[in-house]
Amino acid sequence: MLTILFDGVAYGMLLFVLACGLSVTLGLMNFVNLAHGSFAMAGGYITVIVVNRLGVPFALGLVLAFLLTAVIGAVLERTLYVHVYAKSHLDQVLFTIGLVFMSVAGVDYFMGSSQQFVQIPAALQGQFDVFGVGVGRYRLLIIVVCGLLTVALQFCLMGTRFGSRLRAAVDDQRVARGLGINVGAVFGITFAVGSGLAGLGGALGAEILGLDPTFPLKYMIYFLIVVTVGGTSSITGPFLASILLGLADVAGKYYFPSLGAFVIYTIMIIVLIWRPQGLFSRATAR
Amino acid sequence: MRPGLETETTRYLRARARFGPLEILFWVVAFSTIWLLPTRHLILTETVIWGLFALSLDLILGYAGIISLGHAAFFGVGAYAAGLLAKYELINEPSLALLASALAAAALGFATSFLVLRGSDLTRLMVTLGVSLVCFELANRYGDITGGADGLQGVTVAPIFGLYRFDMFGHVAYIYCLVVLFILFMLARRIVNSPFGLSLKAIKGNPLRSAAVGIAVNWRLVAVYTLSAGYAGVAGALLAQTQAFASLSMLSLERSADVLLILIIGGTGYLYGGILGALIYRLLQDYLSDLTARYWQFWIGLLLVAIVIIGRDRIGRWIAPVVRFASQLGRRPAPAKVATPEKGG
């Protein structure tokens, strides 16, 4: 029971790190980015390459996954995404699905279609008992890393100048522009960091979620659930939503393995009908 | 229509509904392939089915502005319905089974249409996606009925009207699909050129203002969504009948994405887009998979990105003069078939 709780929280934390970038881009630019999973996949594959093939230590591999994915995100944002912000949602969906197709086929071409595994240092493998509860070391690491990241993100958003600019831009883009905030630059940085976080999540999650070329398609729906259920107006909404989703998914798979993902999709539809703005968001005028 | 009521609107509607020379040529060419390309009937059958499926999506996307990422749900329900009806010999005659499958898909469409009414584009995207995923999971879960991951096997389809048996070269299947497409296309054409179709365009333009001029927005959307689901169900049923097989991939997200792509390649909002898109898509797929067998998806993705970056309306503008020129070759000034650029999808 407690093990399920623990695994669920770890899973949820992971989902949060993966999806929080998406929630900000969606809230800020009203941009539907279905290709978010591709960045996560990029992070995962970067780690596989640098850790397994080049022998870089695991921790450094994670940092590299974050940095390189952030660079990829920034470059794509400046070159391609910029042209699509002003277009309709349909165009955004088409554009990002196109990117997903390209990334899936591209990764398949370079890395093969088989599942990839990151070599995790021996110190992080196995589990130990705390009061009779089996605690996986790797999952504990995920909780610690993701927990720290969440606190850091919350601080950045609430305590720094950049954070207040970002929040202003999310609340009302036009007024923020009028006050001299460079919304484009704020968005570019946020997009890069969000992509980097997705990459980090992908790298951390390769062990739990699995890593193969269909990753962006398989987990797209999970990211979207986190964002739509959590709402896009704050960071706590998506956080709670991811923890709930993680718990529901792990518990559902453990107790009702035959139902599969059915429960989650049904819950999502109900939440969307009941509160289209998201479960944890304050009602906004928009 | 009483003679005194010949208003500007009815004149406009009648002008829209008139057949241009290009349209007639299109259908003549389509039916002539029955005799001209007998070796390609298998691939053409598939194209026709994709075309019908894309047509069904065009009804909600091009005319009512509903973005759906889960249209495969109706396609798959239609396919499974047709497959099960044939397998357990509940309705043997294929065209009746087609009708029954369409009703099944339309019923699902009607039930879920109320979920689509609310919310923004993103919510609609998620809800349609969610519905199709639930269908997928259900089909996967009840493997004893649907065959699960192995697909529905052991389907034998009876002869059409008890007379025409499906042959292994797919000639009968192709004629059957083409006739169904033609009938449903003409029906759709009639519907979108009616006041009802016009009101859908108004809703797409601005739901709030349409409500203000007295259009029952929600009910119109429910109606067109149900209709579109029924059309998608027919497309799925056709595939199940011609292949004597139904599988989980007919419900998958990839299929929903593919049909969206097909429609976008062909262009939305003038009904022919789906069919033309299916043709181009099939040719591309053939050409690209010859080029790079497993990675043709990459080029499809690149095409999508390119279409969006160049701009769909700009592509439409390039094609429009050609179509207008061709229409003016006929005596009567026919309306341009490529719709004016769509803003806000």
What does this structure look like?
The complex is a heterodimer of chains A (286) and B (345). Chain A has 286 residues and is mostly helical. Chain A has eleven helices and two strands; from the N terminus they run H-H-H-H-E-E-H-H-H-H-H-H-H. Chain A has a domain at 24-223. The N and C termini of chain A lie far apart (42 Å). The mean pLDDT of chain A is 83. In chain A, 49% of the residues are buried. In chain A, strand 1 (127-130) and strand 2 (133-136) form a beta hairpin. Chain B is mainly α and 345 residues long. Chain B has a single domain (3-329), classed as ABC transporter involved in vitamin B12 uptake, BtuC (Orthogonal Bundle). Chain B has helices at 8-17, 21-36, 41-61, 72-87, 94-117, 121-141, 143-146, 171-192, 195-205, 207-212, 217-243, 253-266, 272-291, 296-310, 312-329. The two termini of chain B are 34 Å apart. The model of chain B is unreliable at 331-345 (pLDDT under 50).
Which two protein chains have the largest interface (Cβ within 8 Å of the partner's Cβ), and how many residues from each? A-B, 43 and 47 residues
Radius of gyration of chain A: 19 Å
Which consecutive residue ranges of chain B, at least 5 long each, have pLDDT under 50? 331-345
Spatial sequence of strands, sheet with the most strands of chain A: 1-2
Strand content of chain B: under 5%
Portion of residues within helices of chain A:
over 70%
Oligomer: heterodimer
Shape of chain A: globular
Mean pLDDT of chain B: 83
Give me the secondary-structure category of chain A.
Answer: mainly alpha
